[in-house]
User: Fold this.
Amino acid sequence: MSTPPPGDEAPISFHLSLMARLRAYFFAGILITAPISITFYIAWLIIHFVDGRVAGLIPADYNPNAYLPFSIPGLGLVVAISILTLIGWVTAGLLGRLFLRVSEAALRRMPVVRSIYSWVKQIFETVFHERASPFREVVLIEFPRKGLWRVGFVTGRTPGSTQEIVPGGLVNVFLPGTPNAASGFLVLVPAADIYRVDLTPEEALKLVVSAGIATPLPRQPDRSSLTAESRSNK
Assistant:
């Protein structure tokens, strides 16, 4: 068999190199545009949903969409935020607090409604209260057996007899699932069996949702600590 001249192999390698570059550029374009596009799409869905529910409640005399040849996107969202802010301002006053107490007292007298109201109110107070910090601490626990570690978030302590089961009490730990971090397990773990890790809640959520693909970057030492250490070495 006759071997091809050396010059005949160059176009093949050039072709493969060009295809590899184009493939890399293609995936880089997906990584750049996909998060931005999905974020804008979800934001558009939320704005469109709120506009469809709230903008229709505005009287025609005060609705700008009735006078313009096009609809103003986000008008319903602005109206909803303004109404909620106004309600918060009214309830902060004396008459607002009095009305809130009377309405809550009426709801607590209803057998089924009071349970739903107290449950929903507790959830929203935990999430939106300024002093509350859900998912404030990232920990590791052995779950579902020894030797297997799961990422969890400390959500607080359950008061009462649960703190007398083991020395040091039990800590509420939420174990998010992968890739849906909204579902998971609530476990009460002895304080001695909790291992705290140097991760922020955002980094831990990215790690869980991505199934370990989006690993956090190594932390850079503080500039002030480096300066102090260099001075001490001198």
